[in-house]
Amino acid sequence: MTLSQFLCKPLADRTRLVLVHGNMLAVRLNKPCCIFLYRMRGFFAEVWYSKADSGVVKVRGFNGTSSL
What we know:
- The chain is an alpha+beta fold.
- The protein has 2 helices and 4 strands, in the order H-H-E-E-E-E.
């Protein structure tokens, strides 16, 4: 799957794809969210989890390391 194909999918599908196929690399805290960094095939993905909402609020995909 390419990054552009990934980004066209709805939030729930992107979340599932990252959790099933991604390799978690790091976690960082950014109030009010925990941000989980994953390595996918050919790109990176961040899953933004909101403690207040008890759920994923954003899944962002990107190429390269400049966004890290």
